[in-house]
Amino acid sequence: MEQEVVLITGASSGIGRETAILLAKTGHIVYGAGRRIDKLESLSAFGVIPLYMDITKEYTCENAIKRIWQEQGSLDILINNAGYGSYGAIEDVPLSEARQQLEVNVFGAMRLVQYVLPIFRHQHRGRIVMISSIAGRVTGPFGGWYHASKYALEALTDALRMETSGTGIKVVLVEPGLVKTDWGHIAADHLESVSQGGPYARLAAHVAAGMHKLYKSRWCSPPAEVAKVVFLAANAAQPQSRYLAGRGAYLILFLHAILPTSLFDALARRVMKKL
Hints:
The protein has ten helices and seven strands. The chain is an alpha/beta fold. A seven-stranded parallel β-sheet has the order 3-2-1-4-5-6-7, sandwiched between helices. α1 packs across α8 and α6 runs antiparallel to α7. The termini are far apart. The relative contact order is 0.13.
Protein backbone atom coordinates (compact mmCIF):
# COMPACT_ATOMS: atom_id res chain seq x y z
CA MET A 1 0.00 0.00 0.00
CA GLU A 2 1.34 3.44 -0.97
CA GLN A 3 2.11 5.92 1.77
CA GLU A 4 -0.49 8.67 1.93
CA VAL A 5 0.75 12.25 1.68
CA VAL A 6 -0.62 14.64 4.30
CA LEU A 7 -0.47 18.43 4.63
CA ILE A 8 -1.32 19.73 8.10
CA THR A 9 -1.33 23.43 8.96
CA GLY A 10 -0.63 24.89 12.39
CA ALA A 11 1.85 22.08 13.02
CA SER A 12 4.30 23.99 15.22
CA SER A 13 2.40 23.33 18.46
CA GLY A 14 -0.65 21.83 20.15
CA ILE A 15 -3.07 19.64 18.24
CA GLY A 16 -1.28 20.19 14.95
CA ARG A 17 2.10 19.11 16.27
CA GLU A 18 0.76 15.99 18.01
CA THR A 19 -1.28 14.99 14.96
CA ALA A 20 1.69 15.44 12.61
CA ILE A 21 3.86 13.23 14.82
CA LEU A 22 1.17 10.55 15.13
CA LEU A 23 0.61 10.44 11.37
CA ALA A 24 4.34 10.26 10.64
CA LYS A 25 4.80 7.45 13.17
CA THR A 26 2.08 5.43 11.46
CA GLY A 27 3.64 5.55 8.00
CA HIS A 28 2.25 8.69 6.40
CA ILE A 29 4.37 11.21 4.52
CA VAL A 30 3.60 14.34 6.52
CA TYR A 31 4.27 17.96 5.66
CA GLY A 32 3.89 20.07 8.81
CA ALA A 33 3.18 23.67 7.85
CA GLY A 34 3.37 26.86 9.86
CA ARG A 35 4.92 30.31 10.15
CA ARG A 36 7.40 29.50 12.94
CA ILE A 37 9.96 27.50 11.01
CA ASP A 38 12.25 27.31 14.08
CA LYS A 39 9.59 25.32 15.93
CA LEU A 40 8.74 23.23 12.89
CA GLU A 41 12.35 22.09 12.52
CA SER A 42 12.06 19.98 15.69
CA LEU A 43 9.43 17.86 13.91
CA SER A 44 12.12 16.50 11.59
CA ALA A 45 13.22 14.12 14.36
CA PHE A 46 9.82 12.42 14.07
CA GLY A 47 9.90 12.16 10.29
CA VAL A 48 7.71 15.22 9.63
CA ILE A 49 8.80 17.49 6.77
CA PRO A 50 8.78 21.15 7.91
CA LEU A 51 7.06 23.52 5.49
CA TYR A 52 6.84 27.29 5.77
CA MET A 53 3.35 28.66 5.21
CA ASP A 54 1.42 31.75 6.25
CA ILE A 55 -2.17 30.98 5.32
CA THR A 56 -2.98 34.69 5.09
CA LYS A 57 -0.43 35.06 2.28
CA GLU A 58 -1.59 33.39 -0.91
CA TYR A 59 1.85 32.95 -2.48
CA THR A 60 3.11 30.87 0.48
CA CYS A 61 0.11 28.55 0.16
CA GLU A 62 0.64 28.18 -3.58
CA ASN A 63 4.37 27.54 -3.16
CA ALA A 64 3.72 24.91 -0.48
CA ILE A 65 1.25 22.98 -2.64
CA LYS A 66 3.60 23.15 -5.64
CA ARG A 67 6.48 21.82 -3.55
CA ILE A 68 4.46 18.85 -2.29
CA TRP A 69 3.30 18.02 -5.81
CA GLN A 70 6.83 18.26 -7.20
CA GLU A 71 8.30 16.08 -4.43
CA GLN A 72 5.54 13.49 -4.08
CA GLY A 73 3.40 13.64 -7.21
CA SER A 74 0.27 13.43 -5.08
CA LEU A 75 -1.52 14.82 -2.04
CA ASP A 76 -4.05 12.68 -0.22
CA ILE A 77 -5.09 14.51 2.94
CA LEU A 78 -5.38 18.18 3.91
CA ILE A 79 -5.81 18.88 7.62
CA ASN A 80 -6.78 22.53 8.13
CA ASN A 81 -5.72 23.09 11.72
CA ALA A 82 -4.19 26.59 11.78
CA GLY A 83 -6.17 29.17 13.72
CA TYR A 84 -6.31 31.36 16.79
CA GLY A 85 -8.85 32.97 19.12
CA SER A 86 -9.32 36.73 19.33
CA TYR A 87 -11.20 37.27 22.58
CA GLY A 88 -12.84 40.50 23.67
CA ALA A 89 -16.27 42.10 23.79
CA ILE A 90 -17.72 42.73 20.33
CA GLU A 91 -17.79 46.44 21.18
CA ASP A 92 -14.10 46.48 22.14
CA VAL A 93 -12.45 44.45 19.38
CA PRO A 94 -11.34 46.67 16.47
CA LEU A 95 -12.83 45.61 13.16
CA SER A 96 -9.31 45.29 11.76
CA GLU A 97 -8.66 42.56 14.35
CA ALA A 98 -12.04 40.94 13.62
CA ARG A 99 -11.15 40.81 9.93
CA GLN A 100 -7.80 39.21 10.76
CA GLN A 101 -9.62 36.59 12.84
CA LEU A 102 -11.78 35.69 9.85
CA GLU A 103 -8.81 35.89 7.46
CA VAL A 104 -6.92 33.23 9.41
CA ASN A 105 -9.69 30.96 10.64
CA VAL A 106 -11.96 31.07 7.60
CA PHE A 107 -10.41 32.51 4.44
CA GLY A 108 -6.99 30.98 5.04
CA ALA A 109 -8.50 27.53 5.45
CA MET A 110 -10.74 27.87 2.43
CA ARG A 111 -7.86 29.23 0.34
CA LEU A 112 -6.07 25.92 0.84
CA VAL A 113 -9.25 24.02 0.04
CA GLN A 114 -9.43 25.82 -3.30
CA TYR A 115 -5.83 24.83 -4.04
CA VAL A 116 -6.20 21.13 -3.22
CA LEU A 117 -9.60 20.43 -4.77
CA PRO A 118 -8.29 20.34 -8.39
CA ILE A 119 -5.61 17.85 -7.27
CA PHE A 120 -8.16 15.67 -5.51
CA ARG A 121 -10.51 15.74 -8.48
CA HIS A 122 -7.63 14.76 -10.78
CA GLN A 123 -6.84 11.82 -8.47
CA HIS A 124 -10.54 10.95 -7.98
CA ARG A 125 -9.81 10.82 -4.25
CA GLY A 126 -8.74 12.97 -1.33
CA ARG A 127 -9.74 13.96 2.16
CA ILE A 128 -10.17 17.34 3.84
CA VAL A 129 -10.25 17.43 7.64
CA MET A 130 -11.32 20.75 9.14
CA ILE A 131 -10.37 21.40 12.75
CA SER A 132 -13.24 23.50 14.01
CA SER A 133 -14.28 23.70 17.67
CA ILE A 134 -17.20 23.19 19.97
CA ALA A 135 -17.20 27.00 19.72
CA GLY A 136 -18.60 26.52 16.21
CA ARG A 137 -21.81 25.14 17.70
CA VAL A 138 -22.13 26.86 21.09
CA THR A 139 -21.50 30.55 21.77
CA GLY A 140 -20.23 32.26 24.92
CA PRO A 141 -19.53 35.85 25.95
CA PHE A 142 -16.33 37.65 24.96
CA GLY A 143 -15.63 35.20 22.14
CA GLY A 144 -18.05 36.55 19.56
CA TRP A 145 -15.58 37.07 16.72
CA TYR A 146 -13.91 33.72 17.35
CA HIS A 147 -17.27 31.95 17.50
CA ALA A 148 -18.32 33.68 14.27
CA SER A 149 -15.20 32.35 12.52
CA LYS A 150 -15.89 28.79 13.65
CA TYR A 151 -19.60 28.94 12.80
CA ALA A 152 -18.60 30.14 9.32
CA LEU A 153 -16.04 27.34 8.99
CA GLU A 154 -18.68 24.76 9.92
CA ALA A 155 -21.18 26.14 7.39
CA LEU A 156 -18.61 26.19 4.60
CA THR A 157 -17.47 22.66 5.46
CA ASP A 158 -21.04 21.36 5.40
CA ALA A 159 -21.58 22.97 1.99
CA LEU A 160 -18.26 21.58 0.73
CA ARG A 161 -19.14 18.07 1.89
CA MET A 162 -22.38 18.20 -0.11
CA GLU A 163 -20.74 19.76 -3.17
CA THR A 164 -18.05 17.06 -3.37
CA SER A 165 -20.35 14.12 -2.68
CA GLY A 166 -19.79 11.30 -5.15
CA THR A 167 -16.40 12.57 -6.33
CA GLY A 168 -14.23 10.40 -4.08
CA ILE A 169 -13.43 13.42 -1.90
CA LYS A 170 -14.32 13.08 1.77
CA VAL A 171 -14.85 16.15 3.97
CA VAL A 172 -14.80 15.83 7.76
CA LEU A 173 -15.16 18.19 10.73
CA VAL A 174 -13.41 17.70 14.08
CA GLU A 175 -14.81 19.73 16.99
CA PRO A 176 -12.50 19.79 20.02
CA GLY A 177 -13.64 20.95 23.42
CA LEU A 178 -11.20 22.51 25.87
CA VAL A 179 -7.59 21.62 25.05
CA LYS A 180 -4.55 22.23 27.23
CA THR A 181 -2.47 24.45 24.92
CA ASP A 182 -1.23 28.03 24.88
CA TRP A 183 -4.34 28.96 22.89
CA GLY A 184 -6.48 29.65 25.97
CA HIS A 185 -3.80 31.73 27.70
CA ILE A 186 -3.20 33.84 24.57
CA ALA A 187 -6.95 34.41 24.21
CA ALA A 188 -7.22 35.39 27.90
CA ASP A 189 -4.35 37.86 27.61
CA HIS A 190 -5.94 39.42 24.55
CA LEU A 191 -9.30 39.69 26.30
CA GLU A 192 -7.80 41.60 29.21
CA SER A 193 -5.67 43.80 26.96
CA VAL A 194 -8.43 44.87 24.58
CA SER A 195 -10.85 45.56 27.45
CA GLN A 196 -8.60 47.89 29.46
CA GLY A 197 -10.24 51.21 30.26
CA GLY A 198 -13.54 50.17 28.69
CA PRO A 199 -16.99 49.29 30.05
CA TYR A 200 -16.13 45.57 30.27
CA ALA A 201 -12.70 45.95 31.89
CA ARG A 202 -13.58 44.64 35.35
CA LEU A 203 -15.55 41.62 34.17
CA ALA A 204 -13.05 40.88 31.40
CA ALA A 205 -10.15 40.86 33.87
CA HIS A 206 -12.08 38.42 36.07
CA VAL A 207 -12.91 36.13 33.14
CA ALA A 208 -9.35 36.28 31.81
CA ALA A 209 -7.99 35.16 35.19
CA GLY A 210 -10.52 32.34 35.21
CA MET A 211 -9.52 31.28 31.69
CA HIS A 212 -5.90 31.00 32.78
CA LYS A 213 -6.98 28.66 35.59
CA LEU A 214 -9.36 26.71 33.37
CA TYR A 215 -6.72 26.00 30.74
CA LYS A 216 -4.48 24.47 33.40
CA SER A 217 -7.25 22.31 34.87
CA ARG A 218 -8.33 18.70 34.44
CA TRP A 219 -11.24 19.89 32.29
CA CYS A 220 -8.83 20.40 29.41
CA SER A 221 -7.73 17.48 27.27
CA PRO A 222 -4.07 17.08 26.32
CA PRO A 223 -3.45 17.75 22.61
CA ALA A 224 -2.39 14.12 22.08
CA GLU A 225 -5.90 12.98 23.06
CA VAL A 226 -7.48 15.19 20.40
CA ALA A 227 -4.82 14.13 17.88
CA LYS A 228 -6.12 10.56 18.08
CA VAL A 229 -9.56 11.77 16.96
CA VAL A 230 -8.04 13.78 14.11
CA PHE A 231 -6.10 10.67 13.09
CA LEU A 232 -9.36 8.72 12.98
CA ALA A 233 -11.04 11.42 10.90
CA ALA A 234 -8.11 11.34 8.48
CA ASN A 235 -7.95 7.55 8.12
CA ALA A 236 -11.38 5.99 8.67
CA ALA A 237 -12.62 4.23 5.54
CA GLN A 238 -16.09 5.69 6.06
CA PRO A 239 -15.59 8.73 8.27
CA GLN A 240 -18.35 10.48 10.14
CA SER A 241 -19.28 13.97 9.04
CA ARG A 242 -18.38 15.27 12.51
CA TYR A 243 -16.23 14.08 15.39
CA LEU A 244 -16.36 15.56 18.87
CA ALA A 245 -13.03 15.48 20.67
CA GLY A 246 -11.86 16.06 24.21
CA ARG A 247 -13.38 16.55 27.61
CA GLY A 248 -16.52 18.56 28.10
CA ALA A 249 -17.53 18.65 24.43
CA TYR A 250 -20.41 16.18 24.77
CA LEU A 251 -21.70 17.75 28.00
CA ILE A 252 -21.68 21.27 26.57
CA LEU A 253 -23.54 20.19 23.44
CA PHE A 254 -26.04 18.18 25.49
CA LEU A 255 -26.85 21.14 27.72
CA HIS A 256 -27.10 23.45 24.74
CA ALA A 257 -29.54 21.05 23.06
CA ILE A 258 -31.90 20.50 26.00
CA LEU A 259 -31.94 23.90 27.70
CA PRO A 260 -33.99 26.85 26.44
CA THR A 261 -31.78 29.66 25.17
CA SER A 262 -32.52 31.90 28.15
CA LEU A 263 -31.50 29.16 30.61
CA PHE A 264 -28.33 28.30 28.70
CA ASP A 265 -27.39 31.99 28.59
CA ALA A 266 -27.95 32.25 32.34
CA LEU A 267 -25.82 29.15 32.92
CA ALA A 268 -23.03 30.57 30.76
CA ARG A 269 -23.09 33.84 32.69
CA ARG A 270 -23.08 31.99 36.00
CA VAL A 271 -20.11 29.86 35.00
CA MET A 272 -18.31 32.96 33.74
CA LYS A 273 -18.77 34.72 37.08
CA LYS A 274 -17.58 31.69 39.03
CA LEU A 275 -14.39 31.20 37.04
